[in-house]
Design a protein that fits this description.
By secondary structure, this protein is an alpha/beta fold. The chain is built from 14 helices and five strands. Helices cover 49% and strands 9% of the residues.
Length: 355
Amino acid sequence: MAAALLVGLLCDNEDEDKHDNRNLMTERLLRPHNDALHFPDHILISLYRLPRQLILNLVAELRPALERPTRRHGALPVVVQVTNALRFFAKGDFQTEVASLSSVSQPCISRNLREVTNAICNLATKYIQFPRGEELQQIKEAFLSQSGMPGVIGLIDGSLFPIKAPSGPTEPAYVCRKGYHAINVQAIGDQNMVIRHLLAKWPGSTHDSFIFNTSDINAYLSEGRGSGWLLGDSGYPLKPYLMTPVMNEQTEAESRYNVAHKRCRSRQERLYGIWKGRWRCHDMSGGYLQYSPERAVMFVKATAVLHNICRIANLPDPEDVPAMVEDEEEGHDGIHDGAQTGRTARNNLIAHYFR
């Protein structure tokens, strides 16, 4: 299977005049399923986005959920199940294409993809954790050193993950402000672009401020348990624990604050770019996910876990990371409950640090 996958990689990179050599290369390179990892790391990263050791680590973590007691009824080895799913996440291929490259049936790939996705999602509590205690202080110091913004415990932003048009009466709710169907995903990232909190369930038309206001992380921070603040764009509500840009800045101090705010928040835009650039099933270049919103949400959660695994392992960022600077939603500075206390906290920050 792995060599057959290598064929797929090579053909993706060949000019069109070499496309007719696919069958010949397949015959020459086809190998058994258990040969999936017998390629050097640079080939494995091209195919699956992970080097051999990280794939083996992931296989070991998922084995209890995926391994069958026997090989009857065509049960695939866990390493093949995992690499098939990674191939789908990495390329956004149709199931039939993954099946062809893997020499297994499309129904097998469909079942395989569902089971692996669910198993990876079950690792979310291990790999996606909001910082607490001493780690919060380390994050604040890192953001201050990187961007000149004090007190930052995370960066928050929403991003649109395209999907096919769902059927039923809820379809209009998934049409985002850019005109296509999507899931509006909210993530909080740290200074290393590791995802620290994830909300992936809302239709594309849902406003960022609504997602945040109804979230568990808003309730958690409103109790004063964060000892700092998130940074968000002007689409978010200004709160004592969520600093937004100053709209219509009037002083040099406000201007300096906005510059530091933007410089710091740019890391969250890059986080989304790396996430979608590595796992192309979410990028527009990989096409729209041809699944229901419920299935698409599971793919988002699974690739968020995989993104963090890559960041924690310090894997190089993928080449040609797509620009993820999205239009900011309508500002909410001063027009919501709690805005006055948020404005007071922001004014104090500007007065004490940016004058």
